[in-house]
Specification:
The protein has 277 residues and is an all-alpha fold. It has two domains: 112 residues, no CATH class; 165 residues, no CATH class. It contains twelve helices and three strands. A three-stranded mixed β-sheet has the order 1-2-3. The longest helix has 23 residues. It is globular and about 60 Å long. The structure holds zinc ion. The site of zinc ion (ZN) has 4 residues, from loops.
Length: 277
């Protein structure tokens, strides 16, 4: 299950605890960014298990911070809501716990290798190409090969990269494509995070670990992710086998409470994609 689907909690409880639900949702997204579902594990894959451990660690940290500061909340209900086990279970499973510093380190490694930045560059280019080649009949036409050419210059790369290229070259063709396949299911979250930071006037892709604390920022992040996902699903390729670049079941959906009605007009960041410059 992707999202915490709390059953047995009243709508009043959920409305009162909406900031916590937002933070919990963001914690899950962090786990998916650390261990994407479309991983490249060749033998036994433990990614699902790792994701659950990451979510438990982040949610326990969230619970601890709430316990310290907001005593008036129903802590027992919150514990159930965040799926925090009894202390005795923690003691028994102590050796299997996923420490917070390791989550921090995982994001740091990805940051240093510019994983998120390169995925942002490539997917944003794909989206821009789609908007530049849109037609009522064929929809938004894009191409992975053309996007790579936009970033690296004409392929095959026999000659040195031309100086006139607009974008900063982060990695080679193979790495761009490899990262695209690894982060394909979560790339709307990666781009939404960058767009949100731009909206907030913050520098993008600096040393950070997908850190959002304010509920209104997480809400906005989820809304942008939702709008991007809708756009990504309409990207078509000229590949005869796979007509669409992303499929419904591949691109992680947003929780059901983020939907068309809950999002405000999001034209600004997406309009930018339409202007190929
Ligand atoms: Zn795996």
């Amino acid at each position: 299950m992707v999202w915490n689907n709390p059953t047995g909690f009243s709508s009043e409880f959920l409305a009162n605890h909406h900031p916590i639900l937002l933070q919990e949702t963001f914690n899950r997204i962090k786990a998916f960014l650390l261990y994407p579902p479309t991983c490249a594990c060749t033998s036994l894959c433990h990614c699902q298990e790792k994701r659950e451990q990451v979510i438990l660690s982040l949610n326990t940290d969230l619970y601890n911070s709430i316990e310290e500061t907001r005593e008036h909340l129903d802590l027992y209900a919150l514990r159930l809501f965040l799926k925090i086990p009894e202390d005795s279970v923690f003691r028994k499973c102590h050796g299997d716990a996923y420490p917070l510093w390791l989550i921090h380190e995982g994001f740091m490694k990805k940051h240093k290798a510019q994983h998120f930045k390169s995925v942002d560059q490539l997917v944003w280019t794909l989206l821009k190409l789609g908007h530049a080649n849109s037609s009522p009949i064929f929809g938004l036409q894009t191409s992975l090969r053309r996007a790579i050419e936009e970033l690296l210059g004409p392929l095959p790369l026999k000659k040195k990269r031309e100086e006139s290229l607009k974008t900063e070259q982060i990695c080679g063709e193979k790495a761009y494509i490899g990262r695209f396949h690894t982060y394909k299911s979560v790339c709307h979250f990666i781009i939404a995070y960058r767009i949100l930071k731009e909206e907030l006037g913050h520098e993008t892709w600096t040393e950070d670990f997908f850190f959002l604390q304010k509920p209104e920022h997480i809400e906005r992040f989820l809304q942008i992710s939702y709008a991007l996902r809708e756009d990504f699903l309409s990207l078509r390729t000229n590949n005869a086998k796979e007509k669409f670049l992303f499929s419904e079941d591949l691109l992680l959906p947003l929780p059901s409470w983020i939907n068309d009605e809950s999002i405000e007009a999001l034209s600004n960041p997406l309009e930018e994609a339409a202007q190929v410059g």
